[in-house]
């Protein structure tokens, strides 16, 4: 009998055995900071369980970066923040740590309304001014090999190649974020990524560590409402909004500054999937969003977004019940309407995915004169992090020379050499000041104080910059008012989707105390929501978690609802038409012509891929039935002879084709011959189950009144 030796422990087999990071279980006390953040502190500071940096320096506050005043900018001397972000930025080789799965395209941005009175940014000085752009959409949590349709935040990053240099507006499809301070970003992403010991789940937040983290971060509750809503499962990249998330600044020629929030409004309107549909889409086509974007551009159906802004001053900001520097808050459009000032159109696919989509590097620090930063502590950390991470991702400080990253205007400086230097600077002017011109040599470029970038100098953000502190402003402490506003602004079945999503996610959480803590937070948002989630999990409601600041009842904002702002019609939508041998070719072509004339596209589906004999000749499908499920389409139609329908009714793929479309509340147009399949699929007649002749009148909209009959929702 073989005898096993002592178990190996990789952490003990090197010279740093006593210094290896481990879980540990020290006694600690949980407190609430000035901004309502969770602080966990050692009870016995003499123990060896203190949190330190990589050089053994004990850390006093792991929640807040060091700022010049409670609402001030983050200080470069914060070595704890810089080390934490530096290590996080270089954890993965060579894939992006977040936003790894991306889709990109080229386009053009055109100013449709000049605003020189509020900003000197060159692109907004004249109506009709334009510049090339590159846009990258992405999921956040999954790796590059994951799927397009998980429940996740989507990145929405736009690189403007302006005459004044590159401007990178790096945002998301949700206007708020999980955390208030960049100090917590590594912790957030560590929690939502695959669990460290087991390497799963991939591209999913439905697991213990994520919900443990957010349950201890009440500031996350507003973002949780968005992430559990249909916003996190978009129908396509062409049908989602984009947001700059932070409050930025506009500065005009006189040096006057105002706050600005950036919005991207899709011309096609905002549309989503339902959860069951998103899951099945991932199986049917893992590249669903990427393919949809590519094919739309290739066919000349160019996606477009209007750029809108919310502009306000410090006096208005000071009167609000929330802090405009807090990235977990938004400004309701009813309070400050979004003013449209430009249009983005994507009109060219990439020539090479790796060279462009994969190598593109977006930097929030890339701004042009007339656009500036604020003291938002999440933004302040991003200004360091994005530049720092490119050294690991792209291997060189010269990543700006990669064509997709290079500006399209001249650039000159004294920086030289470095790995993969492709430029060949001439002369010896690599420092400044110099007087080489006095010896007849080129002396290099010099600063331009009047036209160069200058930061907004006013300290108009209710802050004393002489204070140096790790603290969160008390104005950041209200974590529930806007979460409640978002939830109450949804339609009845949108609220049911949110409750059902939380039930699903928490059903995957193994630790009971985490589920209870989430429920205790939800009670601060809405008692009905908390009760629905508790009922869905079959557990009793715990006591309400104490709130750091009293909730403020905010008016409902209809702009926050997808369904209240839905755009019906065929533009940008795809209709699947099922036919088989003997089908009426004239009817198929009539439906196809009508949909395409209305701005939609048609995908023909049949049991076989080759030419089939039909009434009136032959017809060839675009896709085979069992490889073209109805989740890929916005509406379906069928043109079948009774004998073909009889045969198809015995095939699971055909029955499921109609069952899924019905279950996902889509329009189903059909001929009389299809009825046998509809009966077998359990499809009941309603406003969205119609004769083929009515398809153009009804369109591809969702029929939400059907949902209570087909699905149990929390």
Automatic annotation (TrEMBL):
<feature type="binding site" description="axial binding residue">
    <location>
        <position position="386"/>
    </location>
    <ligand>
        <name>heme</name>
    </ligand>
</feature>
<dbReference type="InterPro" id="IPR002226">
    <property type="entry name" value="Catalase_haem_BS"/>
</dbReference>
<feature type="active site">
    <location>
        <position position="99"/>
    </location>
</feature>
<keyword id="KW-0408">Iron</keyword>
<keyword id="KW-0349">Heme</keyword>
<dbReference type="InterPro" id="IPR043156">
    <property type="entry name" value="Catalase_clade2_helical"/>
</dbReference>
<feature type="region of interest" description="Disordered">
    <location>
        <begin position="1"/>
        <end position="45"/>
    </location>
</feature>
<dbReference type="GO" id="GO:0004096">
    <property type="term" value="F:catalase activity"/>
</dbReference>
<feature type="binding site">
    <location>
        <position position="185"/>
    </location>
    <ligand>
        <name>heme</name>
    </ligand>
</feature>
<comment type="similarity">
    <text>Belongs to the catalase family. HPII subfamily.</text>
</comment>
<dbReference type="InterPro" id="IPR041399">
    <property type="entry name" value="Catalase_large_C"/>
</dbReference>
<dbReference type="InterPro" id="IPR024708">
    <property type="entry name" value="Catalase_AS"/>
</dbReference>
<dbReference type="InterPro" id="IPR010582">
    <property type="entry name" value="Catalase_immune_responsive"/>
</dbReference>
<feature type="binding site">
    <location>
        <position position="393"/>
    </location>
    <ligand>
        <name>heme</name>
    </ligand>
</feature>
<feature type="active site">
    <location>
        <position position="172"/>
    </location>
</feature>
<protein>
    <recommendedName>
        <fullName>Catalase</fullName>
        <ecNumber>1.11.1.6</ecNumber>
    </recommendedName>
</protein>
<dbReference type="InterPro" id="IPR024712">
    <property type="entry name" value="Catalase_clade2"/>
</dbReference>
<comment type="function">
    <text>Decomposes hydrogen peroxide into water and oxygen; serves to protect cells from the toxic effects of hydrogen peroxide.</text>
</comment>
<feature type="binding site">
    <location>
        <position position="136"/>
    </location>
    <ligand>
        <name>heme</name>
    </ligand>
</feature>
<feature type="domain" description="Catalase core">
    <location>
        <begin position="52"/>
        <end position="440"/>
    </location>
</feature>
<dbReference type="InterPro" id="IPR011614">
    <property type="entry name" value="Catalase_core"/>
</dbReference>
<dbReference type="InterPro" id="IPR029062">
    <property type="entry name" value="Class_I_gatase-like"/>
</dbReference>
<dbReference type="Pfam" id="PF06628">
    <property type="entry name" value="Catalase-rel"/>
</dbReference>
<dbReference type="GO" id="GO:0005829">
    <property type="term" value="C:cytosol"/>
</dbReference>
<dbReference type="Pfam" id="PF00199">
    <property type="entry name" value="Catalase"/>
</dbReference>
<dbReference type="GO" id="GO:0042744">
    <property type="term" value="P:hydrogen peroxide catabolic process"/>
</dbReference>
<dbReference type="Pfam" id="PF18011">
    <property type="entry name" value="Catalase_C"/>
</dbReference>
<dbReference type="GO" id="GO:0046872">
    <property type="term" value="F:metal ion binding"/>
</dbReference>
<dbReference type="InterPro" id="IPR020835">
    <property type="entry name" value="Catalase_sf"/>
</dbReference>
<dbReference type="InterPro" id="IPR018028">
    <property type="entry name" value="Catalase"/>
</dbReference>
<feature type="region of interest" description="Disordered">
    <location>
        <begin position="431"/>
        <end position="466"/>
    </location>
</feature>
<keyword id="KW-0376">Hydrogen peroxide</keyword>
<dbReference type="GO" id="GO:0006979">
    <property type="term" value="P:response to oxidative stress"/>
</dbReference>
<dbReference type="GO" id="GO:0020037">
    <property type="term" value="F:heme binding"/>
</dbReference>
<keyword id="KW-0575">Peroxidase</keyword>
<feature type="binding site">
    <location>
        <position position="382"/>
    </location>
    <ligand>
        <name>heme</name>
    </ligand>
</feature>
<feature type="binding site">
    <location>
        <position position="96"/>
    </location>
    <ligand>
        <name>heme</name>
    </ligand>
</feature>
<keyword id="KW-0479">Metal-binding</keyword>
<keyword id="KW-0560">Oxidoreductase</keyword>
